[in-house]
What we know:
The protein is 43% helix and 24% strand. The chain has helices at 3-15, 18-25, 29-43, 59-86, 99-116, 129-138, 202-213, 227-235, 277-289; strands at residues 48-51, 54-57, 92-97, 121-126, 143-148, 158-171, 183-184, 193-197, 219-224, 240-244, 255-256, 261-270.
Amino acid sequence: MELTSLRYFRTLAQTRHMTRAADALGVTQPALSAMLKKLEREVGTALVVRTSRGVELTEAGKVFLLHADEALRAAEQATTGVRQLLGLERGSIRLGGGATAITYLLPPVVSSLRKAHPGLRFYIREAGSSAVAQSVLSGELDLGIVTLPLATASGSELERVPMVTDELRLILPPRHRLTGKDTFRWKDLDGEAVVAFEAGSAVRDLIDRAASSAGIALNIVMELRSIDSIKQMVAAGIGIGFVSRFALRAGEGLVCKDGKIGRQLAIVKRRDRTLSPAAAACEKLLLNQA
């Protein structure tokens, strides 16, 4: 049974007149009569009776009208829902990333999207790059923000969109011997207590490799995931630490004189799936604001 037939019947029930209903629908009266006969054959009984003043609904017609109205309302709501989704009036965005991305890069993007489209909902997961990539591959997340290069099984299924170049800088506890300097060398950190990101994270691997290349074995005394926790522990005098430049004020943090500790942040998404309008808008804004 087609929705068009239901719309025709609803209009006929509202006007109670074949000619007026045909005029309202923009069809001929014979076409409307043919539709009515076809509909009555499908339901197996008469839906209207003709009178001197037009038509009246039979008891079966009254029952059929109730269900026709419900079906048409559901179809109209479905159409409205899709249009709202395409127009970003509704929708959800599932996004994951590391501490830097979630804490410092994502908030202004979410704020801008929420102001423009308050009906959007966000699901945000903070995790390491490998875990984020696996969640994108499994379909749990629409987008991920990761550190490149990305070592993960089935990585070829992921599209990598370069987003921004980050730099890790050294932060110092109060009254440290390097206070007042703008740069450091790895040999300056020999024997220093280090408050570090947890082992296995992309940032930790990057720092460990850079130190090892300079012949330095870092003295890790504490491992944390949160950037703010690392900053607080360093401020409390536990040891030195490394954090993203995005977590620091302009001019804050020491740059490595032996070579900047840089990394490429990128957006990852599945190659075989088209992003929803909401997720696509989020990706565009992330790239624009990065």
